[in-house]
């Protein structure tokens, strides 16, 4: 988890440094694409083929799908973070880049997601259902959060 937070922050800082209108447009496009991919994936039955193999195969499928979702989530929040940082040519852009409140909020949200899903999965502790529940929880919370961010930061996409 801490690795993805560092990637999130470093990626946003690198994207924001010296932004041009073309760069900001590219961030908007990358963010919109990542969100659209996950909105479509959230409606698909991603692991229907794995159901024949029992909980172990379902858990593996959900974990694999979770990796894809995590990559799209990180691309989305990097785009938001970049768009929240000052554009090139502004006085604020000349200051050293630092974490913005969005970075801190996403770090806290990732901790919330992981701890909430770990807690929820304890209902199946000791059985083969816990990994399925944990991975399914992470997918659903991430999809929901990406949709929340889309609502909260809708003005960034214009």
Quick one: overall form? elongated
How much helicity do the residues have?
A: over 70%
Q: What's the total helix number?
A: 5
Poorly predicted runs are 9-17
Seen as an oligomer or otherwise, the chain set is: single chain
- Provide mean pLDDT, rounded: 86
Number of strands: 0
Helix-strand topology string: HHHHH
Main pleated-sheet profile: none
**Distance between the first and last residues' Cα:** 31 Å
Strand content: under 5%
Rg, nearest Å: 18 Å
Helix vs. strand class:
mainly alpha
Number of domains: 1
Describe the protein.
The protein is mainly α and 158 residues long. It has one domain. The chain contains five helices and no strands. The longest helix is centred in the middle third of the chain and has 31 residues, at 54-84. The radius of gyration is 18 Å and the shape is elongated. The two termini are 31 Å apart.
Helix/strand layout:
Blueprint: H1 2-16, H2 21-43, H3 54-84, H4 101-121, H5 130-152
Q: What is this structure, in a nutshell?
A:
This protein has 158 residues and is an all-alpha fold. It is 72% helix and 0% strand.
Give descriptors for this structure.
mainly alpha
């Amino acid at each position: 988890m801490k690795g993805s937070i560092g990637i999130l922050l470093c990626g946003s800082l690198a994207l924001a440094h010296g932004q041009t209108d073309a760069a900001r447009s590219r961030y908007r496009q990358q963010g919109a694409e990542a969100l659209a991919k996950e909105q479509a994936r959230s409606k698909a039955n991603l692991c229907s083929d794995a159901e024949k193999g029992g909980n172990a195969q379902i858990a593996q499928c959900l974990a694999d799908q979770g990796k894809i979702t995590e990559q799209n989530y990180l691309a989305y929040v990097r785009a938001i973070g970049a768009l929240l940082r000052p554009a090139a040519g502004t006085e604020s852009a000349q200051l050293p880049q630092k974490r913005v409140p969005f970075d801190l909020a996403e770090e806290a949200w990732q901790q919330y997601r992981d701890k909430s899903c770990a807690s929820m999965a304890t209902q199946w502790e000791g059985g083969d259902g816990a990994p399925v529940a944990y991975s399914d929880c992470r997918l659903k919370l991430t999809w929901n959060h990406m949709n929340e961010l889309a609502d909260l930061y809708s003005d960034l996409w214009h």
